[in-house]
Every structure is written in C-alpha cells, then in structure tokens.
Design goal:
Length: about 220
C-alpha cells in the first residue's frame, strides 16, 4: 500500500493539542502577512527605481513581459489541449473538433497521436508509407490509399461528403493496383478521422474494412 502523506499530515495535525494548533495558525498568518508586506515594499522600491529609467527601456521591459506572458499562456493552453486529446484517445474516441497541426518532429516519429496531418507530408520520400502507428488523428487528403500488407485498420471514421462506404473504395482485381496511389505497409490506423481520402481494395478487403469505418452523416 502506497504511503499517503496527506492522511499522515491530517492525523498528525489532529493529534496536536488545541493551544499548539492555535499557536501554529497565528505564526503562519503573521509570517504570511510579514512576507506580503516585505514583497510590497520591494515592489514599491523597484517601481521608484524604474521611474528613473529612460522611457524606451521601460517600454522594452513591458513588451518583454508581455511576450513572455503570452508564450506561457499559449504553452499552457497547448498542453491542456494535448492532454484532452490523449484522454479522448485513451477512451477510444475519434476526434471531432479540429486538432492542432502536426509538427515536422511529430511526423518523423513512428507513433503519431492527437494531431491533424496531411497524408502527402508523410510520403515525401516515396509513394509507400511504412511502419507508422497513427492514433486519434485527423488524416487529410485528397489521396487514394492502397493497403499493401501487414496493416491494421481499427475503428476509424470517413468524412468526405459521400453518402456510403462503397463510395470511398475503388474495387480492383486481386494482384492489381492503380498508378498514383499512396501505399501503406505494416501501418496501424486506430480511432482516426479520414478526410477526403479514398481506398483501393479487392472485394474481400472492402468487406473486411467496412466494419472498421464509421460513416459520418453527409454534410449539408
């Protein structure tokens, strides 16, 4: 059983006599008030000193604080969004709202999750994408995908304005392909949202994939 310091502290505090608790509380508040007064004094002294500086320096300092604050707020919001996206992925949800665009560093990783990416950015070095794991992403075309072998397709969504699953699939005979397609080999696509992307497949492949894609309602 893991040690919980919060319960230990609560038990210790309750075991103290009331006069000791009161003394600690008084000391805490006095210390806090003293610290606040000291910080107020230093702030006042700093303000008096800054008033003697040239106006240009004050403007630069103010601008620097603004930039730092803006960057911190954006960083916090980015982390909150990423945490929310990861939580949705862990819960098995396909993302509905627009995700943040993938960075070049993220595209270079084997596992990509919780971002919006253009399929063309993944195949700049050749027409075949190999050994990628993509989860909870929005994958944007236009593109036509050919699954070459060893791929896992699980619980994805299609959205391109077409009404039925068969409108997303080009049926080809066994052993045939089409020129200009993006080939996938040993890749995994889980709980992702495909936008403006079609597939080429044999009759057997199409019947197997049908249950792994949810068709979104047609947009008006």
């Amino acid at each position: 059983m893991a040690f919980d310091w919060r319960w230990a502290w609560a038990g210790f505090w309750e075991s103290l006599p009331s006069p000791v608790q009161d003394a600690i509380k008084n000391w805490f508040w006095q210390t806090l008030i003293g610290f606040a007064c000291m910080m107020a004094y230093f702030a006042w002294a700093a303000f008096q000193e800054v008033q003697q500086w040239p106006g240009e320096i004050i403007v630069l300092i103010g601008f620097a604080f603004f930039v730092i604050g803006f960057a911190l707020v954006n960083q916090i919001r980015w982390r909150q969004l990423q945490q929310k996206m990861r939580a949705n992925i862990e819960q098995g949800e396909v993302p509905k709202q627009k995700l943040p665009d993938a960075t070049p560093a993220q595209l270079a990783q084997r596992r990509i999750s919780g971002v919006r990416l253009h399929l063309a950015d993944l195949v700049k070095d050749g027409p075949i994408l190999r050994d990628k794991i993509i989860e909870g992403c929005q994958i944007v075309g236009p593109a036509v995908i050919a699954l070459l072998g060893g791929n896992t397709i699980s619980r994805n969504e299609l959205d391109g304005g077409r009404p039925t699953f068969t409108d997303y699939v080009w049926i080809v005979p066994e052993g045939h392909s089409l020129v200009g397609t993006v080939g996938l080999e040993n890749c995994e696509f889980r709980r992702s949202h495909f936008l403006h992307i079609s597939f080429i497949a044999t009759e057997q492949q199409a019947s197997e994939w049908r249950k792994e894609f949810h068709e979104l309602p047609r947009r008006s």
